[in-house]
Write a structure and sequence with these properties.
Layout (H helix, E strand, L loop, with lengths): L7 E8 L2 H14 L3 E9 L6 E8 L2 E9 L5 H17 L6 E5 L6 H11 L9 E11 H9 L19 H11 L2 E5 L6 H10 L5 E4 L6 H6 L4 H7 L18 E7 L5 H7 L1 H4 L3 E7 L7 E8 L2 E9 L7 E7 L4 H11 L3 H5 L13 H4 L5
Parallel strand pairs: 1-5, 1-6, 2-5, 6-7, 7-8
Antiparallel strand pairs: 2-3, 3-4, 9-13, 10-11, 10-13, 11-12
Length: 369
């Protein structure tokens, strides 16, 4: 007779700080010694590099190997190594819980989405269940990391040679997706950074002050909702965090309109909304391609604009949420109004835009025929 055992819990850990990653993992295994940690790092090499896989528990390092990268897709390579390794660790009777520590600066959403499917009944990780996604950060550097213009490559944190992301872009994605944010540093010593975090972390997530203050048993006992995690970073569901503090000058501004953005004015003046010490995210539409959901994502002095499918049954709309620490809200409101079609332009309808040159093609791709 085959004995069916309950799946073991799996925590996913993401950060832009390698020291914090190790500190959190160490704290968990000390708090719960029957935990094993799987850590991945990206290693450059003359033959294309590889993934360094380290397996450790409370007794120390058990496994340290370099796995060659199989193809150009880094996240795919990490997942392809993680899934069989995690399943192997989960079946080992020495451990009753697993932590997956992602490569520093890796975003947790795509990996967690894949793990969510793999841990379903009949999946490749049927011996595990996804419990919590955790992000770790330091208040002493958080504001500069999120709003500054440093690139991951400049700090030696880029995942690949062509990884052009800003530190703020990676950090915003990690914090916005996490079920639990573990915070190093005293909020009283860093009040602006502390408030800023509460403006940009997931509204339905939790914050724990103190890297070692998290209850490991509680982390492993919980269950990560993959759909809820996706929704947190979905540009169509962007919204200010309710009740975020405002006493230290941190603000969040919601800009919404049923009118579309003017394509030419957007290309010329997007910097008025997308640059500077500001975190911005949301969606918009343009009359030159009214069926396309356009995505807006800005952090770390960089602005990313792209297309995300079609509106389907949704009514096209424009909604941006911006968070900052310098009070430039009046300027942002004025810029937003200038980038929209005027009421008169909007009243003319879409006919004037049929066959017009597409100024946004370099960012959104060619229009469908």
């Amino acid at each position: 007779m085959r004995v069916l055992r309950d799946p073991k819990p799996l925590v996913v850990l993401a950060t832009v700080d390698p020291l914090l990653r190790d500190a959190v993992a160490f704290g968990v295994v000390m708090d719960r010694p029957r935990t094993v940690v799987l850590r991945h790092d990206i290693v450059d090499g003359p033959d294309g590099g590889g993934i360094r896989r380290v397996v450790a528990d409370a007794g120390g390092v058990i496994e340290d190997v370099l796995v060659p990268l199989e193809h150009a897709c880094l996240s795919c390579s990490v997942r392809e190594d993680a899934v069989p390794t995690l399943e192997r660790l989960a079946r080992d009777p020495r451990w009753d819980a697993v932590v997956l520590a992602l490569p520093v600066s890796a975003e947790s959403l795509p990996v967690t989405r894949a793990l969510g499917w793999a841990t379903r009944r009949g999946g490749g990780l049927r011996s595990l269940r996804l419990s919590r996604v955790v992000a770790a950060l330091d208040l002493a550097t958080f504001a500069d990391d999120l709003l500054g213009d440093d690139l991951l490559d400049e700090r030696g944190l880029a995942l690949t040679q062509d990884d052009g992301r800003a530190v703020g872009e990676a950090l915003a994605a990690q914090v916005g997706h996490a079920d639990v944010v573990l915070v190093a540093g005293d909020p009283a010593e860093h009040p602006v950074a502390s408030d800023l975090l509460d403006h940009v972390r997931a509204a339905d997530g939790a914050r724990v002050d103190g890297i070692y203050a998290a209850d490991a048993d509680a982390l492993f006992a919980a269950a990560h909702d993959v759909r809820a995690g996706d929704r947190r970073l979905d540009p169509l569901h962007v919204a200010p965090v309710p009740g975020a503090p405002t006493g230290n000058g941190v603000w969040t501004l919601e800009l919404a309109a049923d009118r579309p953005m003017h394509p030419e004015r957007l290309v010329e003046d997007a910097a008025r909304l997308g640059q500077g010490a500001c975190r911005s995210r949301g969606h918009f539409w343009v009359p030159s391609r009214p069926d396309s959901v356009c995505v807006w994502d800005g952090a770390g002095g960089q602005l990313s604009v792209g297309a995300l499918g079609t509106w389907g049954r949704r009514t096209p709309g424009t909604r941006l949420v911006l968070t900052g620490v310098e009070d430039v809200r009046a300027d942002l409101l004025a810029a937003f109004e200038d980038l929209l079609l005027t009421p008169q332009e909007h009243a003319r309808g879409l006919a004037p835009w049929l066959g017009a040159p597409d100024a946004l093609a370099p960012w959104l791709g060619d229009r469908a025929a």
